[in-house]
Amino acid sequence: MKSVRSAARALIIQDGKLLTIEMQRGNEPVFYILPGGGQVHGETLEATLKRECLEEIGIAPVMGPIAYVREYIGRNHTFKEAHKDFHQIEVVFRCSLPNGETKVGIDMDKNQIGVRWIPLDELEQLDFFPAVLKEYINNGEVAIDREYLGDIN
């Protein structure tokens, strides 16, 4: 039986820049995602967010309100061959870094090659997922008008 995975991610914007995880599969082009990852059974979303961010960016963020919820049904998107049986629900929280810290990266995930602060006005030119987030950038902020964004990539 196939199951749906839950995950928590951090939307961290500081000085007009978005904190991202830099990813690359083999020789494929580099792409970017938000920090965070899969929830472990018995773990709260807050604990998931802090654990995953510690692993990927080296800092446990200060968790704020929910920015949005999205589903990712792999067979419908860019990585459909690799993710054909993958279904995840992500709760994305607006976060900040304690004391404005910017230390990043200690225990990178598979295919993670780095951590990068991307100026919001440069995001459009990069392979960033979920790509729809680019549509919500306005005046150096991400302004999302609804909480559930559906099955997006």
TrEMBL record:
Gene3D superfamilies for the chain: Nucleoside Triphosphate Pyrophosphohydrolase (3.90.79.10)
Nudix hydrolase domain sequence ranges: 3-141
Pfam families tied to this protein: NUDIX
SUPFAM superfamilies on file: Nudix
Keywords carried by this UniProt record: Hydrolase
Cofactor: Mg(2+)
Molecular-function GO terms, alphabetical: hydrolase activity
Keyword Hydrolase on entry: yes
Keyword Hydrolase: yes
Top-level taxon of the source organism: Bacteria
PANTHER family referenced in this protein's UniProt entry, alphabetically: GDP-MANNOSE MANNOSYL HYDROLASE, MUTT_NUDIX FAMILY PROTEIN
Protein name: NUDIX domain-containing protein
Gene source species: Rubellicoccus peritrichatus
